[in-house]
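Dear colleague,

Following up on yesterday's call, I've attached the two folding results inline so they're easy to grep. Please treat them as preliminary; we haven't cross-checked anything against experimental data yet. The first protein's sequence and structure tokens come first.
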Amino acid sequence: MSTSDQRALIKVDAQQFRVRVGESIGLRRAAEIGETLHFDKVLAVFDDKGKAEFGAPFLSRVKVEGKVENLTVTRGIAFKKKRRKNYKRTRGFRKPVARVRILSISRA
């Protein structure tokens, strides 16, 4: 089975991503461009024939490796309002997002 046919379900912080080699995902964390990230929390692995392997809760011998391509910032707004009280508050913030390209899904 080649690694390009594999898909994996990984858990990063409080999010889960379904990834394939060559795809990119956006992570809400600060990182450096060119940094290699290793994801050890693999929940499941799927192949092209429809065969799946699930962990309980994680697969210990499967590792996913990715590389940070670029860093962006998304903007968010927190808005509070109390009706009929003339009370409105707007607060903005910026979330760092690291775009990570998946390099390999390997069995250790």
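Below is the second protein, in the same order (sequence, then structure):
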Amino acid sequence: MSEIRNCNFRYECTKKWEDLMQTYDKNVRHCINCHSDVHYCRTQEELYEAMVHNYCVAVEIKRSPDDPIEIYVGDVAPPPYPNKK
């Protein structure tokens, strides 16, 4: 399982994962404010799949080695494309 790295949000939601409505899938919750499903991503591969489908996501992020793990919710920006010369 690969750790999530370099995750940049286009939009970081003020809602917490715990506040979102549970669904039939334990890895998906629903936001009643924006009417979007939020997909919990634990790996880089899951995050990439969510980005391909333009899903809102919840990811665990540790900003620095001394910080606790926090769950961030929002819309993830795709990685920048390298400049071709």
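For the second protein, one point worth flagging: The beta strands are 9-12, 21-22, 28-31, 36-41, 56-61, 70-76.

Best wishes,
A.L.
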